[in-house]
Specification:
The protein has about 250 residues and is of the alpha/beta class. It has helices spanning about 35-45, 65-70, 110-115, 120-125, 125-130, 150-160, 165-180, 200-205, 220-235, and strands spanning about 10-15, 25, 50-55, 60, 75-80, 85-90, 135-140, 145-150, 185, 190-195, 210-215. Helix 1 runs antiparallel to helix 6. The longest helix is centred in the C-terminal third of the chain and has 17 residues, at about 220-235. The two termini are about 25 Å apart.
């Protein structure tokens, strides 16, 4: 599906899949996606000189006709839930009683307090402006993101120091720190999250204007049939998109 639109598509996966056609080994420490930032870093280093990099998990279906028609390829793409998850670095402000248990775990704030010490100062000086306070931390989903080429070096310079963090802290914090201002960011519109019973009837929640769905395992035959149906509907609505948009090699 994606290969008909993107110049290059690379799949990273665990050892059991590496004999499959085109599947590259995930980074050491990927930890079933908990530290997916390690594999993102690996992909950026192994695939230099592209105009941009769009990545998603294996349980995401990207409505690329809608996304490619609506999103700006000169900006960083991310998604913040309404409202985003927020916590604080300081012991005095740290919120213990939050629904997201990863804040207090070994991949949360305790790890961030240590790992952020290695982040170059030019990025740390942006912390208060980028994250809304001197010790404020945000977290959001890291299901789909896009990074223009001009930010790759900055992304690596920050994220390579956040290797122990949960990816839903490491990636959004990195993306916010490397953006010079809010105009460098673009937020995904209309994603659909199929939590609990919703995943039993994804077709009920699908619209042509949906940017992506998660979680949605395409190993399921029924899901693949729905995906093909959705794609045809979306292509009709966004019929004027070019055949090849992103990941264009500049060499």
């Amino acid at each position: 599906t994606y290969e008909s639109v993107f110049t290059k598509v690379v799949f990273y996966g665990p050892g059991m899949l590496q004999n499959s056609s085109g599947v590259q080994p995930a980074a050491e420490g990927h930890n079933l996606g908990l530290h997916q930032q390690l594999t993102v870093l690996k992909a950026l280093r192994e695939n230099p000189d592209y105009d941009g990099y769009l990545w998603s998990g294996d349980d995401v279906w990207l409505n690329y006709p809608m996304v490619l028609s609506a999103m700006n390829f000169s900006r960083i793409w991310l998604y913040f839930g309404q409202p985003p998850r927020i916590n604080y670095l300081s012991e005095e402000k740290f919120l213990h009683n939050t629904p997201w248990l990863n804040w207090a775990g070994k991949h949360g704030i305790p790890a961030l307090r240590e790992q952020m010490k290695a982040i170059p100062q030019k990025y740390l000086r942006r912390w208060e402006h980028a994250l809304g306070g001197p010790d404020r931390v945000i977290s959001t989903t890291a299901d789909v993101n896009y990074l223009p080429r001009k930010y790759v070096e900055d992304f690596i310079a920050v994220c390579r120091h956040l290797t122990v963090l949960h990816c839903e802290i490491a990636i959004p914090v990195t993306l916010r720190l490397i953006a010079n201002n809010k105009e460098d960011l673009q937020y995904f519109m209309n994603p659909v999250y199929l939590w609990e019973d919703k995943r039993k009837t994804p077709n009920v929640f699908w619209k042509n204007t949906t940017s992506f769905l998660h979680p949605l395992k395409l190993s399921d035959v029924h899901m693949r049939q729905l995906q093909a149906k959705w794609l045809e509907q979306s292509k009709k609505q966004f019929a004027d998109i070019p055949l090849s948009y992103n990941l264009k090699c500049s060499k």
